[in-house]
Structures are given as C-alpha cells and as structure tokens.
Amino acid sequence: MKLKITIFILFNFSILFSQNEWNFGYIGQFTTSPRDISIDKEGNVLVGGYHLGADRTNFLLNVNIENGDSLNNAICKSGVLCDMRNDILHVATSNDGETFVAGNLSRGEADYVAKLKNTESLDVDWIRDDLLAQEIHDIDELIAIPDGVIIIARLSDFRHTLIKFDFSGNIIWTKQINVTPISAPLDESMLISLPDNSIVIWYKNGDRHFMSRITSDGQTIWEEQVNSGIVSLTVNNAGEIISVESAQRFDPPFLIKKYSIETGTAITLSTDCQAKGARKIISNQNGELFVGGTYRDATTNEDGLELTKLDSEGNFIWRETFLEPSYEDAFKDMAVSKSGQVVILSTRSYPDVFNQRDASLISVNGNKTSTSTKSIEQRKAANIFPNPVNNEITVEFFDGFFDSGYQIFDIHGQLIQKGDLEFQKQEIDISVFNSGVYFIRIINENGRFQTQKLIKT
C-alpha cells in the first residue's frame, strides 16, 4: 500500500508552552477537528485529527514540551491514508515509543489501524485497512500495551468487540462484549491498561454500566455492574484504578473512587474533589491526580476550561480556570508528561460566526503546589478541627459562609448525618461513629462548598 503525504506548516501558531501558567497555542483555525492526544516517552505531544472541507486531510501535530519546544516551531503534518477522505480519530503510544493511529477511511465507509514509522511523518510500518471484510466498523477506543494494541470496535450486526493486534498488525484475539439485547450497540466505552498488561474496560449499555478486567490474552478476570455516574478512569503509579464520578454524571459534586484490581469493588477517596466540570482524570508518576473539564462561569455565563489537582488520596490541592472572553471552550482530552506537564486539548467556538472554530493546546505546570492567584487556605470556607477526632469536631468559619449546612459521609459515599451551622464557631458531635474514615461537606445557600476528610479514632 502506498501512502501519499502532504506536509504544511500552520503559520498561526503563536504562543509558547509555559512551565508556569496557562498558555494556549492554536493547532488550526476554523476548520480543524482534533480528536485525540498522547504523550510519548520522549515528551512529544501528539495530536491527531483532520481538517474539514472538501479535502478532509489528516494531521498529526508533534511538539516536544520536555525540550521547551513552542507551537511556533511545531510542524503540523497533513497526510493521506489511502486517499484524501480519511480521519485520524485515535492516537496511542506504547512504553517503547511506538505510535499507533486509528480512524475512518473514506469518511466512514471503513476503518483502519496503523503503526507509524515515526512521529515525523505519516509513513506507516503497517496498516490494517481490511477490517471491513471482517465486519469491523466504527473504532471507539485505541490503547497500546507492552505487547500490542487493543481497540473497541462495532461489528456489522451492531455488537461490539475487543480486538488485539500484535506489533506486526496481526490479530491475536477478539472478544465480544456482553450486552443485552445481544445486538445492542454500546452507548459509551473506555479502555485503560494496567502495569501487568491486563486492561480494564468500562462500557454503558442503556441504563446499565459495567466494568471488567481482562488479561493480555483475552481472559476475563472479573466483571461488575458499577455506578452509573463514572465520568473517567485512570491508573495511578501503584497500579490502582481511580475514577471521577458524580450522581448526575457530569454535574458537581464529583467523587473520587478507587476500584480494586482484584475484585472491582470500590471505596470512596473523596466525596467532592471541588471540580466544577469533570470530563477526564489522569495521574502523574507520583500518583497525584488531575481532573480536567469544562465549566460554566457564573458571572459571564460563558464556558471555560478548568484543571483541578488532587493528591494521591483524592484530597484537593488547587483548581485553575481559564476563560477566554467571546469564546466557548470545550474540553477534548488531556495527558501528562513524565516531567509533570499537563497538556489540555480543547476546541474553541466563535458564537457570532456560524460553524467557525479553532483548536488549542494548553500547557500547565502540574508540579506546582498552589495556584498563582489564590492560596489553598484562601479557598477554604472554614477550619475543621481536630483531625483525627474522637468525640466532637469544631467548624470555625472565615467570612461570607454563615447560615450553612453540613453533611457527613462514610467511606462508601453514604450520607450518615446532616445538620445546620448557624454560628461562626460550632461543634458537631460524632462520638457515636465507629472508628474509620469519613468526609464532611460544608455548603451554603449559594452552593459554595468545602469537603474535608475526617479520621475518627
């Protein structure tokens, strides 16, 4: 198979990546549709997507943030896989540095999986563009594991299946995903890989949500029906499965949970991570967590981007927001590099111009311990002490938070006590509680809230 390549430079790259604050740079204006982001072991940020219009050309953006590269110096490649009407929808990199892409051929008539020779061009080592003959349509997910690459795809009879390819492009195994009725398509799905080469799949089938762990040779270890509010999954540095979820799925407050890799059972780390619009959770090499998403600014009524940093136990560290006037910002994806830089991919709409948009990359220093504008203490509504506690806790408010209420949850997220807080300093009796971990949430009539973990002795 011959691969035709067209290379060009987008001259509207304008702003450098920053180690210290939010900064954005354009991937392309008006007709750019970025779809996926990955960071390889060398620190190259890879963004795959396509340019809209008659040509429907692919692009793969490659910029190295570890070397301090700017978007000004990044070359955005536009290429063709077989013809001028293809889409790059998924990008994945392995621990050894191999890069894989997947997407549609001829605007959805068929799908492909390919391994790139390098990230400097769209030349390929191999391409599997014969998937239609095997009744494989609509690739929903793509991940790389140490001994291959795995996709979730829809078959011609609407069933969904997992397919594993080796690094030479050969299909090693396929595994049908169990749904009811048998021909029902999946509404949504997610894939993550664990350090032992097994994978975890989450999928939504109607009102039911499932999670299962599968070995690298396709054997199911466990499958559980899980909470319907899961938004995103990640794996931390200890190989544990971490989720961000909410009772209303995409509305705050957002919980942080940890799922056992042995059984799939969950415990709650935090009942409110203080994010306002979670869409994805990722973990750095230290096990710290980042929740990214889109939120609605209460003052301007415009959409903006946010990033919330948590420690490895789900405790709040800081929250940063980015709102550009006159634009609507939509979170697409994010990834974190080995050095701790968090890179967010977003699209930006122009409300006054029909169907006009561009795309941006935003780099945030994930290593900082506080925000550049407000300290952690300034964001708190009250001091809650002592902690650990035996019989009574004291809630002492700062200003602007009087006439509040409180809720106390157990480690499983169940509400076990609530009440009113009418004074600047007030005690709460928890002497009847068993020893263990609890969470207290303070919330006022305007919806502002603060959550803190309690250790009951």
Furnish the topology, listing elements before pairings.
Blueprint: E1 5-7, E2 24-29, E3 32-39, E4 44-51, E5 58-64, E6 75-79, E7 87-93, E8 99-105, E9 110-116, E10 124-128, E11 136-145, E12 148-155, E13 160-165, E14 171-176, E15 188-193, E16 199-205, E17 208-214, E18 220-225, E19 230-235, E20 241-245, E21 255-259, E22 266-270, E23 278-283, E24 289-296, E25 303-310, E26 316-322, E27 328-336, E28 341-349, E29 357-365, H1 376-379, E30 382-385, E31 392-397, E32 404-410, E33 415-421, E34 425-429, E35 436-443, E36 449-456
Query: How many strand segments?
Result: 36
Amino-to-carboxy terminus distance: 68 Å
Outline, from the CA principal axes? globular
Strands ordered across the widest β-sheet: 1-6-5-4-3
What proportion strand?
over 45%
Structure description:
- The structure is a single chain.
- The chain is mainly β and 457 residues long.
- The protein has a domain at 380-456: Sandwich (Immunoglobulin-like).
- Helix content is 1%, strand content 53%.
- The chain contains 1 helix and 36 strands.
- The termini are far apart.
- Mean pLDDT is 77; it is low at 1-31, 80-84, 350-356 and 373-379.
Question: Would you summarize the structure shown here?
Answer:
With 457 residues, the chain is mainly β.
